[in-house]
Structures are given as C-alpha cells and as structure tokens.
Backbone:
C-alpha cells in the first residue's frame, strides 16, 4: 500500500536524527512527499547503509517502495595540497562600476587578482568569480586555463548556495562544478565556488608540475 501521509516537524526531525545515527552518515536531508532522502556519508566498509535507511523509514510509516534514497560519499583524505582561499572583496568605486579583488595562497606564496566591470547583483557575482580565475592564472602561469561558463545563486534545502560551472580550456568537453553556501558575503561565496570547482584539477596539476 502506498502512503500519502506527511510527517509533522517533530517526527521529521526525529527521523533525520535516527538516520544520522547510522554508522558513517554525516548528514541526512529529507524531502517530500514524494519522499526523497539524501545522505552524505563517510566510506565505511561493510555497512549496509541503504538497508538501514529503509528499515528506519518503514518504522516511520514510509514503505521502501515509496522512497528514493540517494547516497553521496565524502572523498577520502588526499595527501596533495590545495590552493587555499585567503580573501575576496568587492567595491563599487563609482556609479555603474564594480571592482573585485581576490587573494589565494599556494606553496607559501600569496597571489592577488583583480578585475573591474559593470555593477549589478548578477554582474558583480560573475566579476568576483572571474577575479578568482584571474588569480588562478597567476598561480598557473598560463599552463592551464579556465573559462567561467556560469555562476548563480540558487535555493536548496532552505539555504542559499552559489554554484559555479567552469570549463577547462585545455580539455575539450571537461566541465567542473563547485558550490559554496552563502553566509554574509555572496562575493566570498562566489570565489569559493570557483575554487571548489577547480581545486581537484589544480591540486593534481600543480603537484605534478612542481614536483
């Protein structure tokens, strides 16, 4: 029998807590109905995570056939270093213009990039992202190039998230996606989203070329 019942806030919170008590589950998000469960997990060997999840859902009146369970595993710790974010600032020096500055660190050295362009919420977000890519160009010394396909603010799970899509110019068809939660400064989040998108490629590439 298919359930159409909803869960009140208290029951939903109790369900989330039970899911996060499963060994290896770091975060659980519940959407619905129709029911969708998203889990962020450590990689724990020989733990039947999905089986445990469906057992808990059934106890709360949600049959296994009525729920979509999606599991995302956190990456294993990596010995290689990453480009580190230091700061991002955006100013509006005069009407209609904006100025973005970004600072990053690699190998004990600070790299600085800046860019000026038109003002406006969406344009300024893009300007901060482009300034981040310009700063990365200083680290890479044109050995690897990125193109900003797009950047936008989206609403997900009751939180504002900046999502960036970046293309690697040297590898046709290779796109990278990065995201960052918006706290107080969306321009900082824009820089972090670009860095989160590119850092996996950067870490491997810089470690190989510097080694």
Residues:
């Amino acid at each position: 029998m298919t359930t159409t019942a909803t869960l009140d806030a208290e029951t939903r919170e109790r369900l989330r807590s039970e899911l996060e008590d499963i060994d290896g589950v770091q975060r659980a998000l519940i959407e619905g109905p129709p029911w969708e469960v998203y889990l962020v997990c450590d990689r724990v060997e020989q733990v039947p995570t999905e089986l445990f999840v469906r057992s808990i859902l059934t106890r709360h009146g949600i049959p296994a056939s009525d729920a979509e369970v999606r599991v995302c595993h956190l990456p294993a710790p990596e010995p290689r270093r990453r480009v580190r974010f230091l700061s991002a600032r955006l100013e509006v020096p005069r009407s209609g213009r904006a100025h973005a500055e970004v600072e990053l660190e690699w190998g004990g050295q600070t790299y600085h990039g800046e860019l000026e362009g038109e003002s406006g919420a969406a344009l300024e977000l893009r300007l901060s992202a482009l300034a981040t890519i310009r700063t990365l160009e200083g680290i890479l010394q044109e050995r690897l190039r990125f193109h900003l396909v797009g950047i936008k603010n989206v609403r997900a799970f009751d939180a504002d998230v900046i999502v960036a899509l970046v293309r690697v110019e040297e590898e046709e068809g290779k796109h990278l996606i990065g995201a960052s939660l918006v706290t107080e400064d969306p321009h900082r989040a824009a820089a972090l989203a670009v860095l989160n998108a590119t850092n996996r490629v950067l870490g491997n590439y810089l470690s190989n070329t510097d080694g």
In short: Helices lie at 9-20, 49-59, 121-140, 186-210. The first strand starts at residue 25 and ends at 31. The CA atoms of residues 2 and 65 lie 8 Å apart. The mean pLDDT is 83.
